[in-house]
Design goal:
Layout (H helix, E strand, L loop, with lengths): L4 E6 L4 E6 L9 H16 L5 E6 L3 E2 L14 H19 L4 E6 L1 E4 L1 H7 L3 E5 L5 E3 L11 H11 L1 H10 L3 E2 H6 L5 E3 L4 H13 L3 H20 L2 H12 L2 H16 L3
Parallel strand pairs: 2-3, 3-5, 4-6, 5-7, 6-8, 7-10
Antiparallel strand pairs: 1-2, 8-9
Helix pairs in contact: 1-2, 2-9, 4-5
Octanoyl-coenzyme A binds next to strand 4, strand 6, helix 9 and helix 10.
Length: about 260
């Protein structure tokens, strides 16, 4: 099977770029999740790598989030394995020892937003047609507490309450306004700017940076670590409900009908 992530590691700067390249929309299916996790793990173990930039090689889309087809009309066993891989991605990325920057060069709903807010810094293309947010309620599903915690750690409690309650997708300028992203640049400058910005993070003493990051994030990570099995169980029993399956089916139909 062909690779869903391309990695460019610049040995002279210690900066790796992970390009998600899974058409049509970089939806996070089992294959992409698994490759994402092993790629990040390998980079973290590579002594020559100090920072990673996560971006998309597809035009207009960073990631469409979790692949709905992995949780629609599949077995409970499959849903459980899928969810474990999603947990793994978040645990690895939110707790990553490397400096991490999301170079958001397109739309980034739900799981795409989760990847972004799990990074240390976010740069987005300044196109108002691109949006980002945790829109789970629009699908009739509920973002788990660790999605919510990561969002609240980024934009605060009240903004998160409204964003999740209404399933808001923010345009790039709106996302900058609420601090969901840190910087907007023109589309063709997103990865360049990320590379430049990475220099600032790598100029900080590495141990001091890592301990500080861990201090900020460890309580949120430990909450899931001490509760992984229960979280998988909750997900599986929720997602396999008839009513939830119907909502997902309607949402998929809506996505297809949206086309001209
Ligand atoms: N999963 C599966 N298939 C998808 C997804 C997805 N997330 N997103 C798009 N597709 C499919 C479309 O159905 C379409 O299929 P087809 O070609 O067969 O009709 C194809 O990909 C291309 O999509 P579009 O035609 O819509 O492409 P556009 O370029 O017009 O739009 C967007 C791209 C903006 C990404 C748009 O596709 C979109 O909005 N997608 C849905 C995004 C979304 O809402 N994702 C939420 C996923 S749920 C999640 O990530 C967190 C779940 C937490 C679980 C908690 C449960 C307890």
């Amino acid at each position: 099977t062909s690779s869903k992530i391309r990695v460019d590691l610049d040995q002279s700067t210690g900066v790796a770029v992970m390009w998600m390249q899974s058409p049509p929309v970089n939806s996070l299916n089992m294959d992409l999740l698994t490759e994402f996790n092993t790629t990040l793990e390998n980079l973290e173990m590579d002594k020559s790598c100090h920072g990673v930039i996560i971006t998309s090689s597809l035009p207009r889309i960073f990631s469409a989030g979790l692949d709905i087809l992995e949780m629609y009309q599949t077995s409970p066993e499959h849903c459980g394995q899928f969810w474990k891989a999603v947990q793994e991605l978040w645990l690895k990325l939110y707790g990553c020892n490397l400096a991490t920057i999301a170079a958001i060069n397109g739309s980034s709903p739900a799981g795409g937003c989760l990847i972004s807010i799990a990074c240390d810094y976010r740069i987005m293309a300044d196109n108002p047609r691109y949006s980002i947010g945790l829109n789970e309620t629009l699908l009739g599903i509920v973002a788990p507490y660790w999605f919510k915690d990561t969002m609240a750690n980024t934009v605060g409690h009240r903004t998160t309450e409204m964003a999740l309650g209404l399933g808001l997708l923010y345009s790039a300028p709106e996302a900058l306004n609420i601090g969901l992203v840190d910087k907007l640049v023109s589309e063709d400058q997103v990865v360049n700017t990320a590379t430049h910005t990475m220099g600032k993070w790598l100029a900080i003493d590495e141990h001091a940076r890592q301990v500080t990051k861990s201090m900020m994030r460890k309580p949120t990570i430990d909450k899931l670590l001490s509760n992984r099995e229960a979280d998988i169980h909750n997900f599986v029993s929720f997602i396999t409900k008839d009513s939830v399956q119907r909502s997902l089916g309607m949402y998929l139909k809506m996505l297809k009908n949206r086309k001209g």
